[in-house]
What we know:
Blueprint: E1 11-12, H1 32-42, H2 48-74, E2 79-80, H3 82-98, H4 111-120, H5 124-132, H6 137-142, H7 150-166, H8 169-172, H9 178-184, H10 201-232, H11 234-247, H12 256-261, H13 263-275, E3 282-286, E4 290-292, E5 295-297, E6 302-305, H14 307-311, H15 354-371, E7 372-375, E8 399-404
Antiparallel strand pairs: 1-3, 2-8, 3-6, 4-5, 7-8
Protoporphyrin IX containing FE (HEM) binds near residues 28, 46, 215, 218 and 344.
Keywords: Endoplasmic reticulum, Heme, Iron, Membrane, Metal-binding, Microsome, Monooxygenase, Oxidoreductase, Transmembrane, Transmembrane helix
Membrane topology: Peripheral membrane protein
Amino acid sequence: MCLKTSTNKHFLFHKNFRLNGDLYDAVNVAEDDEWRRIRNHVTPSFASGRIKEMFNIMQHHSNKLILSLQSKVDNNEVITIKDIFGPYSMDVMTSCVFSVDLDSINDPSNPFITHATKLFRFSVPLFLFQGCFPVFIPLLNLLGVSLFPKSSTTFFRAVVEKIRAERSESSRKSMTDVLQYFLNYQTNKVSKERETWGLNDHEILSQLTMLLFAGYETSATTLVFLAYTLARNPEVMKQLQQEIDLTFPNKGLVQYDSLMQMEYLSSVVDECLRLYPPAARIERMTKETVRIKGITIPKNMIVQVPVYALHRDPDLWPDPEEFKPDRFSKENKHNINPYAYLPFGMGPRNCLGKRFALVMIKLALVKVLQTYSFLVCEETEIPLKMHPEGLVGPLKPIKLKLKKRTVVSDVEN
Ligand code: HEM
């Protein structure tokens, strides 16, 4: 069933895939009052003031990203784009979440990367089975069946547990990461008071694990698709490089406020997320029977919103397959129906890391385009075959070349 209208009044809080294994209390799967309490604790750790503080960490990793590109470009290598943006995204996430600099930019086969990638490729048959036959869910839970590969959730949990245990009282004071934020409000009480007392140990570990992979794969994949679409649309890339050069002359230091005010950059990112929204669908469950436009939806029914299909619907987007950032320009974007564009979801359960993700993505893109241009090469797959499972992503890794820009403010031929 495809509903192009939405009402938040009746569709509440359902994100639960049911077979969550040990991640049953992570913010994206918790329900009702539990979800509200946990979300209230997680949200402030990604408030704008804190993201500004984390910007320095992002700067550090974006500089390392640029350094790592140098020899590859000098050797005219064909570059697997996920191998540069994946580690950048993971390094930013682990540094901001628990102050661990993995340096995976220099070690892309780091187990963090391999496990995080596996977490999102969950089994579609199993997902459909548990949706169609919820009666089997208790049995599957009993058998330890989980949508998320157990080896990967166990890996993350063990690492996070170790980091948390090693954080001594004395080191705590100097830490400003997300883990420390949770620890400052920690409780082990299980009582009504908990509402005001923070998260317990298990909940903290679940949030940290979930944040890592909620943030890693989505942001890395968006950067990969940005590189791909820009390589295929050099005119757009040139216009973006002109805006970058104008905002930060002579490859100047990228500053937070100016970065966030760049209009064309914003349009390019928005348009890329229209064509390639990492979450192809979002879902909600009805809390009560509801009738919308003549369709009755019974209580407890899961309704899927087909984000990918909405983003490419020709009734909503002229030339939907074309990459046209101007759809999102200041003059045009008020014409867009907000329910037709849902890369970060909508309503109270929308993406908690949206602002953080956009800063991390924009910074990396600007830094790369200050020095390099993306180029399609023989190894670039056109058109792309998409992966049938998990998040929206290419079936085979996207390969491109990068070319050094000769004069910073030039318009290359
Ligand atoms: C381009 C990057 C990203 C995209 C496209 C994206 C997209 C989404 C979408 C579509 C949802 C579901 C929203 C809904 O059902 O209405 C979601 C939820 C969520 N995202 Fe993101 N996300 C991104 C990055 C991040 C980052 C960096 C973090 C963490 C720092 C994050 C944390 C979360 C969390 C915790 C939820 C669950 C919220 C809840 O259920 O209350 N995301 N995201």
